[in-house]
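Interim report, section 4.2 (structural modelling).
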Amino acid sequence: MYEPRRIQHCRVCGSRVEYRTPEDDNRDRAVCTVCGEIHYENPINVVGTVPFWEDQVLLCRRNIEPRRGFWTLPAGFLELGETTADGARRETDEEAGAHIELQSLFTVLNVVRAGQLHLYYLAKLQNTRFAPGPETIEARLFTEAQIPWDEIAFRTVRDTLRHYFDDRRQGAFGIHVGDVH
Amino acid sequence: MYEPRRIQHCRVCGSRVEYRTPEDDNRDRAVCTVCGEIHYENPINVVGTVPFWEDQVLLCRRNIEPRRGFWTLPAGFLELGETTADGARRETDEEAGAHIELQSLFTVLNVVRAGQLHLYYLAKLQNTRFAPGPETIEARLFTEAQIPWDEIAFRTVRDTLRHYFDDRRQGAFGIHVGDVH
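Predicted structure of the assembly:
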């Protein structure tokens, strides 16, 4: 099970917190020993795209840890002030500099051990000119046969790519909801 | 746009934070003035169900703020250590004491101004005995004609109910992705 982020001090007053179950609650939270502020810790969202061009998909080779040097779909943490679609578009721009037309939500994958929910959208590439940002070593198109399956950075990326090529072969794209263990 | 949660002190060392854009980042974060810890703030997830029985849907009358006295579908914040499906089941148990068989993911709705993503699953009721918890005044079944549309607690609940009855009339349930403004 996911280990909470181990808060030690209160965000409001800076005093020590202790982990205990507040009244009217049923699980331990970081509660300030001085002002009583309760600090909730919840899963966060990773949003990204499957940018496709004819029979190929765009992957980015990571220039940052974790999994530096491995290949990923463009994705990153959803930020306050944006929708999941906005975030997926922004990450595709930041990591690949790719021009896309965002299409439907494609995978919704829980990664409980990381405290994350991953959401990938289909994205039709408008051209094949990419301008990867500093987080990416290289952005490149791959057919299914060319995908470096042993060098894929994350399990949700592998699952999303598998669903993409399966659906493409069957001629119909659904939405895939699942969990990664 | 959503106002971040206004962190004032560092969770690691308790010192003052300042909001500034860290190196290699492109937006303001709460950064500790002493130890340098960066505190990210991200949208969180609300998970719930549409519990149905023949031509009726189960609603709960809220016993807590916000929107005390208004009707809602069973839903609440996704917790660390659980999948979105686990969370939806737990909230249905806690708020309605209803026995359900969880079915497919039904709505995925961004609420940007609240910094939230809401996910509702379809849930087939196993019987009509409910045991609402302390957060609920009353749990009751409603046909479409009986839904108290003017007393629904949240916009995502209204949208989810509308999609449910529309899809039911058409004889096929899809998945609905959208934004609430």
